Amino acid sequence: MPDMKFFVSVISLLISLYAECQPPINFIFSSDTTKTVAYTGKLVNGKANGYGKGVFSNGNIYTGNWKNNCMEGKGKYFWKKDSTIHDGLFINNVAEGKGKLTWKNGDVYQGDFKNFLREGKGTMKWVSGNIYTGEWQKDKRNGWGIMEYKTGDKYEGNWINNSRELQGKFTWKNGNEYNGSWKANERSGNGVMKWTNGDVFSGAWVKDKRNGFGKIEFATGDKYEGMWVDDYRGMKGIYTWKNGNVYDGEWKTDERNGKGVQKFANGESYSGNWDLDAMHGYGEYKFKSGDVYKGEWYLNTQNGKGVLYKSNGSKQDGTWVKGSFIVSPKNKIEQLAGEVGATLNMALTNAAFREYASKNFSVPNMRYQNKDNNCFEFTLGRGKVTYIVVLIAAKNSYLEILPELGYSTRTRPRTTYKGPMFEDNAEGVQAVWYIIDSFDGYDITVCPKSSNESLSKMEGKILIYRMFN
User: Fold this and answer.
1) How far apart (Å, rounded) are the C-alpha atoms in residues 307 and 330?
2) Distance of CA 185 to the CA centre of its chain
3) Which DSSP letter does residue 23 get?
4) What is the pLDDT of residues 39-68, one digit of tens each?
5) d(Cα 376, Cα 444) in Å, to the nearest integer?
6) Which of 195, 306, 364, 420 has the fewest Cβ atoms within 10 angstroms?
C-alpha cells in the first residue's frame, strides 16, 4: 500500500500548480497605496504567500517570496525606468540585509542594504574599472573604505558622502604616497607626501597643494623648512644645502626673492635683496678674508654703485661691472668708439654716414651704416672680447642689440646682459648700459622710438668700451 506521506506531497504539489495556474489577483500594495500589484503565484487564504511574481502598476516587477501580500524573503526586484535589478533579501516590502544591485550599464554592488539603499559594508565595481570596498550609509560611501582606481592608484581611508575626507592614504601607481588629511577629495590639512625619488614633505595642504607651514627633505640631502604658497616655497623659510650653505629669508615660487641672509659653508655670508634666486639689488657681502662689500648686485655679481671695505682699512668706492671695480670709464676701460655725432640728428645717406664714420672713428672690426635713413647701426666684430655699450642722455630713441645673423633672426635673445643705470658720464645724466660677450659679433642699432619719427628728433650718444682682461 502506498505511503501516506507520498499522497500528501502529491496533493500539495497539485494544489500549488493549481494556484499558479490561476489568473492573477490584484491587490493594493501595502507600502505604497498608489500602486496595485498583479500577482501570479502561490496563495494562502487569498493572499500572496510563498513564491510568486508581482507586476506593479508602474511597470516594476518583483519575483520571489511573499508573505501576506508583502515581499518577504529572497527575491529579485526589477525597475522598469532604468532596468536596475536588486537580487537579495526583502523584509516587509523593502530590500534589507545582503543583496546584489546591478545597473543596466554593468556597474555592480554587492553587500548590505537598508530600505533599498546601500547601507553597511559592501563592494562596488564600476565598468570603468574602479572598485570600492568598505562602508556605506544612505546609498553613499561613508566611513572607512578602499578605492582601487583603474589607473592603478589606490586610496585607503575615510569617506563622507562619496568624497575622500578626514584621514586617508593615497598611493599612486608610480609609487608616490600621501598620508594625511583630506577635504572634498583633495589633500587638505596636515599630511606627509613621499615621492619615489626619495623626497619627503610634511606639513600643511590646502586644495591639493602645499599651503602654509611645511618641511621638505630632498633626496639630495638638502632640506627646506618654512612657508608654502600654491605648491611653491613662498613668503619666508630656511633652506639648508647638503654642503652646509644656509639661506634664511623670503621666497617666491621656489626662488629666493626679497630680503634674506645666506651663510656659506666657507664662512662667507650675504645679507640683502634677492631676485630670480640670486643676489640682486642692494646687499652686504662678508668675505672670509675679512673684506666687506656693501652695494648693488646683479645676478650674483657686484654691479652698479658699491663700496668694498678691505680688512687692511682701505676701501674701493665707485662703480662695479660684473664683479670688477671701475673707478671711471676713462682710466679702467678702453674706449673703443666715441660718440656717434653730438645729437644723433644726422639724417645721412648710407654713403654719407660711412664717410662721416671713417673720418671720426678708427675702430677695428667695426662697420657703420645708416639703415634705411632711419636708424644708426654698428656691428661689433667677432672675437672673445667683452664690451660695454652705453646709451647716454637718450631721448626719443631706443637701443637694440642683436646677434650678427641678419634681420630675419630677430627672434633670438636681444641682449646677453642689461645692467642698472650708469651715471659715470660727462653729461652727468643716467644712461642704460649693456654688457656683451662678443663671440659671434653683434648688431647695435639706435632707432627712433616711433616709426613716424626721423633721426633728426633723436638725441644722445653711444659709447662702446672694451673691458680689460
Assistant:
1) 19
2) 17
3) P
4) 999 999 989 999 999 999 999 999 999 999
5) 8
6) 364
The whole-angstrom distance between residue 295's C-alpha and the CA centroid of its chain comes to 36
333-376 pLDDT per residue, tens: 344 333 333 223 333 334 444 444 444 433 333 344 444 445 55
Domain at 335-467, CATH from 2.60.120, 1.10.357, 1.10.10, 2.60.40: 2.60.120
User: At a CB cut-off of 8 Å and minimum separation 6, what does 331 contact?
Assistant: none
pLDDT confidence tier of residue 327, bands split at 50, 70 and 90: low
Distances (CA, A) of 243 to 220, 221, 223, 264, 289: 10, 9, 11, 9, 20
Grid cell in block for residue 37: 500589484
Q: Which three cell numbers stand for residue 102?
A: 546591478
Residues 195, 274: Cα–Cα separation, whole Å: 29
* pLDDT of res. 303: 82
CA pair distance 148, 288, nearest whole angstrom: 58
The type of residue at 149 is Y
| pTM listed for this prediction | 0.67
CA distances to 317, 397, 437 from 465, rounded to whole Å, are 21, 21, 12
Give the dihedral of Cα atoms 309, 310, 313, 315; nearest 10 deg. -50
Within a 10 A sphere around the Cβ of 93, how many other Cβ atoms? 20
Q: With contact defined as beta carbons under 8 Å apart, do 37 and 56 qualify?
A: yes
Task: Write the DSSP string, 145-188.
Answer: EEEE-TTS-EEEEEEETTEEEEEEEEE-TTS-EEEEEEETTEEE
